[in-house]
Amino acid sequence: MVKIEMYTKLTCPYCHRAKALLTCKNLPFQEITIDGNIDMREEMIQRSGYTTVPQIFIDGKYVGGCDDLYALEACGGLD
């Protein structure tokens, strides 16, 4: 089973889209909400190099954001 981690904010529409895709594919994921959590936000930036959400990792490998996740799905990478 793969480990999927996703840094999110509660009001982010791209986060909701990414979560919906993973849920639709029945892929469990760990959601790391960074709202008001400076330490988690800094961890996300250290790991990804980006300040925007979502930031997604699969088995510790950086995937990117929502558009990157959908691109991975389009080429069969989530199957």
What is this structure's SSE topology?
Blueprint: E1 4-8, H1 13-24, E2 30-33, H2 38-48, E3 55-58, E4 61-64, H3 66-74
Parallel strand pairs: 1-2
Antiparallel strand pairs: 1-3, 3-4
Helix pairs in contact: 1-3
Helix and strand element order:
EHEHEEH
CATH class: Alpha Beta
CATH-defined superfamily: Glutaredoxin
Largest sheet: 4 strands, mixed
Q: What would the CATH topology be? A: Glutaredoxin
Give the CA-CA distance, first to last residue. 12 Å
Radius of gyration: 12 Å
What is the total number of structural domains?
A: 1
How many beta strands in the DSSP annotation?
4
Number of helical segments with 4 or more residues: 3
Helix share of residues? 40-55%
Mean pLDDT: 97
Give the name of the CATH architecture.
3-Layer(aba) Sandwich
Q: DSSP strand (E) fraction?
A: 15-25%
Cross-sheet strand order for the largest sheet: 2-1-3-4
**Helix-strand makeup class:** alpha+beta
Oligomer category: single chain
Report low-confidence residues grouped into runs of 5 or more: none
C-alpha geometry: globular
Family: Belongs to the glutaredoxin family.
Domain Glutaredoxin: 4-63
InterPro entries: GLR_AS, Glutaredoxin, Glutaredoxin_subgr, GRX_bact, Thioredoxin-like_sf
Organism: Candidatus Palibaumannia cicadellinicola
